[in-house]
Design goal:
Layout: E1 2-6, E2 15-19, E3 29-39, H1 41-47, H2 50-53, E4 63-64, E5 68-76, E6 87-91, E7 105-109, E8 113-115, H3 122-125, H4 129-142, E9 148-152, H5 157-168, E10 172-177, H6 182-187, E11 192-195, H7 200-207, E12 212-217, H8 223-226, E13 229-237, E14 251-254, H9 261-272, E15 280-285, H10 289-298, E16 304-308
Parallel strand pairs: 9-10, 9-12, 10-11, 12-13, 13-14, 15-16
Antiparallel strand pairs: 1-2, 1-4, 3-5, 3-7, 3-16, 5-6, 6-8
Helix pairs in contact: 4-5
Length: 309
């Protein structure tokens, strides 16, 4: 089979499409024939060597690339309860694997996989796992049944899902993004919109004078956004570096994701019901992955780029 790997860790042009043996599923695993695999910023971080430099993973000869996947179960190992032919979504959450989802086939633990949303094209389903699961973890950790949430980077993958999931949980959502994204962000359910060009703290306090109950900091603004949180509120962030200081009794949540089939199943149900949406910014053949990675590296991509074997 063909698989995309990173060896020299010098960016998109150093990615290699290699021929690799067809992987066999072990106990509790399934092999998926890939229909689509989204590209995420973490994939670019691996390909450029940043993941090694900051200590997210140890150096090795070859890194497989890709976290998200949608496809069809092609083979099941002993103890795996997903039948061959089942359309699924899954998440490959281990950085150091020599082969991952940017390939024609991938083997995953059955606990990292769930049936795909009913009646959804698999290319669109491939954009759900990593971003939606990350947003779900944040909203779930807040344990809020009412209140106000500020979402930074609301037009991005994680931020967009955070808006939808927070709104579905009955929360009031203040979203911030680029001015050009206001219509899109409001379509996700945001109650209030703050342009990135505005003074965030002033704008938020005009809406919520005591501050918001929780912050989903998908734009990684850290303290600059935390000032909008009320004393004793909550702050979810997504980077692997030092946690911002918990000023004024604010509870910090560092969201470092791991695959969870039960949570993916919940997200698949929400997607099938139209509660959460998908957004494909473009598709590329696996052989043209470098072009897709370069596009992501330039920034400004709205939605996910998806590789198709």
């Amino acid at each position: 089979m063909r698989a995309l790997v990173a060896r020299r860790l010098e960016g998109p042009d150093s990615l290699e499409l290699i021929e690799a043996p067809l992987p066999e599923p072990g106990h509790g695993q399934v092999r998926i024939k890939v229909a689509g695999a989204a590209i995420n910023p973490i994939d670019l971080i691996v390909a450029t060597g940043v993941a090694v430099q900051v200590g997210l993973t140890a150096p090795r000869e070859q890194f497989g690339i890709g976290w998200d996947v949608a496809g069809v179960v092609d083979a099941s190992g002993p103890g795996a309860d997903l039948a061959v032919g089942t359309a699924v979504i899954g998440l490959a959450d281990r950085l150091g694997r020599p082969l991952k989802t940017h390939a024609e086939y991938v083997v995953l633990d059955v606990t990292a996989v769930t049936p795909a949303p009913k009646d959804m094209e698999l290319v669109h389903a491939a954009t759900i796992p990593l971003n939606a699961l990350t947003a779900l973890r944040a909203i779930t950790l807040f344990q809020l049944s009412a209140g106000t949430v500020l979402v930074t980077g609301a037009a991005g993958g994680v931020g967009g899902y955070a808006v939808e999931l927070a709104k579905h949980s009955g929360l009031t959502v203040i979203a911030t993004a680029g001015e050009q994204d206001e219509e899109y962000v409001r379509s996700l359910g945001a109650d209030h919109f703050v342009s990135r060009a505005e003074d965030l703290i002033t704008a938020v306090h005009a809406i919520a004078p005591a501050g918001v109950d929780a912050l989903v900091d998908a734009a990684d603004l850290e303290i600059a956004a935390q000032e909008a949180v009320r004393s004793g509120g909550q702050h979810a962030h997504f980077h692997s570096g030092p946690t911002p200081p918990p000023m004024r009794g604010i509870t910090m949540h560092q969201i470092l994701i791991q695959a969870d089939g039960a949570e993916l199943a919940r997200l698949a149900e929400l997607a099938a019901a139209g509660v959460i949406s998908t957004r494909v910014a473009g598709t590329y053949p696996l052989a043209d992955a470098a072009t897709a990675y370069k596009r992501l590296a330039k920034g400004g991509v709205r939605g996910r780029l998806v590789l198709i074997p």
